[in-house]
Amino acid sequence: MGHIAKNIAEIRATLPPTTNLVAVSKYHPIEAVAEAYAAGQRIFGESRAQELREKAEALPKDIEWHFIGHLQPNKVKYIAPFISLIHAVDTPKLLAEIHRQAEKNGRVIPCLLQLHVAAEETKYGFTPDEAWQFLESGEWRNYPNAQISGVMCMATNTDDETRIRHDFQVAHDFFLRAQSSFFADAPHFTQCSWGMSDDYPIAIAEGSTLVRIGSKIFCE
Ligand SMILES: *Cc1c(COP(=O)(O)O)cnc(C)c1O
């Protein structure tokens, strides 16, 4: 078994049935994705529209492609025909553009709101207060083809497990409150995207339904 298949098997063995693995293949070649595919992996995450399109064209059509990084509104059109989930909606403007492009393609595109919960200033996303205000405003109801299906976050980049756990708890608490206040009638509002190579065990314990793992799969 190659190292990619072995890494995937090891990670899978630790995931509860409620958590899905997004294999983050950004910067890794098509051959590496093909190896993961051969090992049974079907969900892949990319963070650049051009790279994602090239890989999607070259690889089997039953792959579920997720866009996981910062997405500029003017790039949505390149991925709108086929993208399965956009993880990091960080502005109302982006949500509006996803709706527009999804409608053009006769699709509904599931999306997650990116929450800024980390200590770093540089990361994208809504603060929980901003996200709450946005949901309360009802503006998103004008964009039904961009279907808000949950929330996403990145924890603080630190070795302090208490801080990481806290960040995920803030996001999970937001998810639960949003679910009961705005999405009680929306069975698709189910996804909590958090956890990367260094912190996914904590993320799973704190309610993650989608872990986004790159280096632990693709690097030896
Ligand atoms: C690159 C990336 C990941 C994967 O990070 P690893 O530490 O390599 O597992 C997860 N989420 C986002 C948003 C990323 O950009």
Question: Can you characterise this structure?
Answer:
This protein has helices spanning 3-12, 30-38, 49-58, 76-79, 92-104, 128-137, 161-182, 200-205, 215-218, and strands at residues 20-24, 43-46, 64-67, 85-89, 109-115, 146-153, 191-193, 210-213. It is an alpha/beta fold and 220 residues long. The protein has a single domain, classed as Alpha-Beta Barrel (TIM Barrel). An eight-stranded parallel beta sheet has the order 7-6-5-4-3-2-1-8. Helix 6 packs parallel to helix 7. The chain starts with a helix and ends with a helix. The model has no long low-confidence stretch (mean pLDDT 97). Pyridoxal-5'-phosphate (PLP) binds next to strand 8 and helix 9. Residues 24, 26, 47, 68-69, 196-198, 212-216 line the site of pyridoxal-5'-phosphate (PLP).
Helix content: 40-55%
CATH architecture: Alpha-Beta Barrel
In sequence order, what are the helices and strands, one letter per element?
Answer: HEHEHEHEHEHEHEHEH
User: Segments where pLDDT lies below 50 for 5+ residues?
Assistant: none
Discrete helix count: 9
Give the CATH H-level superfamily: Alanine racemase
Total tally of structural domains: 1
What compounds sit in this structure?
pyridoxal-5'-phosphate
The radius of gyration is 17 Å
CATH topology: TIM Barrel
Question: Could you say which overall geometry the principal axes of the C-alpha atoms support?
Answer: globular
Largest sheet: 8 strands, parallel
Strand order of the largest sheet: 7-6-5-4-3-2-1-8
